[in-house]
Design brief:
single chain; 430 residues; alpha/beta; UDP-n-acetylglucosamine1-carboxyvinyl-transferase, Chain; five-stranded mixed beta sheet; four-stranded mixed beta sheet; 12 helices; binds shikimate-3-phosphate
Length: 430
């Protein structure tokens, strides 16, 4: 349990955040398609990234990890250098590790089993098992369609697949299998989810074409060259500080060098639509855009978000609920049932915590409606073991009337181990 005291003076924050979690996973994982030594700097520092490193090591990859925890040298001899693991591959809490690894391992000539913690073992895996099986993969999940996933060697063939859910993890699993398949693979997206996999692989030299919502993957004929890669800051981690400034009158927050692709910055678009001043400065677009964001607090007003809006801010919707509690009018989020399948049931967790703070919120199967206008009260909050819930409600507590307590605050370390230390210093630094 952790105490959270309200921060009473305006914030004037200027900070950088650790490397983007999604991009860090991929920068590490795609070295399996290369030959030589790749160097990755400014990696995400969270436990999920450690899960990807652990699994790659279990598969025989040599990874030298710097003691400050944010750069790595990976020695790869290519896909054929991966070896049969001695035990189950432990993906911890990381859905990205499990789903991307499943696509990668589906085409390998050895058996493997992917497992993880209780939360990960309750998350839906049919969404990857079905398309991978239609490529010829042999994957055995539990009857409920959950992990552990037992993968046996199989010959893969390319498919033409229309995505039933907007999910970058599913899309990426198919792409990684497609690189090892016979014939080309087409993926058609109804709503475009984050494009890191296809953009990074294309940049690293794979034959991957992106035309609007259609991605075409040719099987990899040669190994790719090892690369040096600097991961941009994580816009999802930055969002906590942006939201903290937005709900604290008179505050500003500048975050430097974060990833800024359209598919990732939906939260900042929503923040601006709610009335905050959001200035985005793109400084470099060599693979995907990166640059700075400045948020200045202004009065906030409720908005409605649904369908197409959702994938671009899927991880930030708990924060949108928090902003809604501090906004005038109602904030409605619909067609976001995916939130129920994240590290916890996030719709439930959002409603539980905002109700504890005295806020009027209606729970829907696919979203929620929050009524703002009453000051949130300090309360006993619960992270439900979910990093994004822990941090979103720590932000809510910062601007609340009276102190709060957070059950299981350590969950934040899944993506942002530095979070609580920064929050503890805020009152003093600003
Ligand atoms: C991620 C994709 C998203 C996101 C997750 C990371 C990724 O999940 O919620 O935190 O790295 O591809 P889905 O693609 O399943 O929506």
């Amino acid at each position: 349990m952790r105490q959270i005291a309200p921060v009473t003076s305006p914030l004037n924050l200027s900070l950088s955040v650790p490397g983007d979690k999604s991009i860090s996973h991929r920068a590490l994982l795609f070295t399996v398609f290369t030959e030589g030594v790749s160097k990755i700097r400014h990696l995400g520092t969270g436990a999920d990234i450690q899960s990807t490193i652990r699994v790659l090591r279990q598969l025989g990859m040599k990874i030298d990890y710097s003691s400050d925890g944010n750069s790595a040298e990976i020695h790869s001899t290519g896909l054929d250098g991966l070896s049969h693991p001695d035990s189950d591959l432990d993906c911890g809490n990381s859905g990205t590790t499990m789903r991307l690894m499943a696509g990668l391992l589906a085409g390998r000539p050895f058996r493997s089993a992917l497992s993880g913690d209780e939360s990960l073992r309750s998350r839906p895996m049919k969404r990857i098992v079905e398309p991978l099986e239609s490529m010829g993969a042999s994957i055995k999940a539990r009857q409920e369609g959950t992990a552990p996933l037992e993968i046996s060697p199989a010959e893969l063939t390319g498919i033409d697949y229309t995505m039933p859910v907007a999910s970058a993890q599913v899309k990426s699993a198919i792409i990684l299998a497609g690189l090892q398949a016979d014939g080309k693979t087409l993926i058609r997206e109804q709503t475009i989810a984050r494009r890191h996999t296809e953009e990074m692989l294309r940049q690293f030299g794979a034959s991957t074409e992106i035309e609007g919502p259609v991605i075409t993957i040719e099987p990899l004929s040669d190994l790719l060259k090892a690369y040096d890669f600097v991961v941009p800051g994580d816009p999802s981690s930055a969002a906590f500080w942006a939201a903290a400034a937005a709900i604290s009158p008179g505050s500003t927050c500048t975050i430097e060098d974060i990833h800024l692709s359209t598919e990732r910055i939906g939260f900042y678009r929503a923040l601006s639509a709610m009335g905050a001043q959001v200035d985005i400065q793109i400084l470099n677009s060599s693979i995907e855009p990166r640059g700075n964001i400045k948020v200045t607090a202004r009065d906030l007003y409720g908005i409605t978000l649904d369908g197409e809006d959702v994938p671009g801010m899927i991880d930030e919707l708990p924060l949108v609920a928090v902003l809604g509690a501090y906004a005038h009018g109602t904030t409605t989020v619909l067609q976001a049932e995916e939130l129920r399948h994240k590290e916890c049931d996030r719709i439930r967790a959002i409603c539980h915590n905002l109700q504890a703070m005295g806020i009027d919120i209606t729970e829907y199967q696919d979203g929620f409606e929050v009524t703002g206008g009453i000051s949130p009260k300090g309360a006993k909050l619960d992270s439900f073991g979910d990093h994004r819930i822990a941090m979103a409600f720590a932000v809510a507590a910062m601007a609340a009337e009276g102190p709060s307590q957070m059950i299981n605050p350590e969950a934040a370390s899944i993506s942002y181990p530095e979070f609580w230390r920064i929050l503890d210093n805020l009152g003093q630094d600003s």
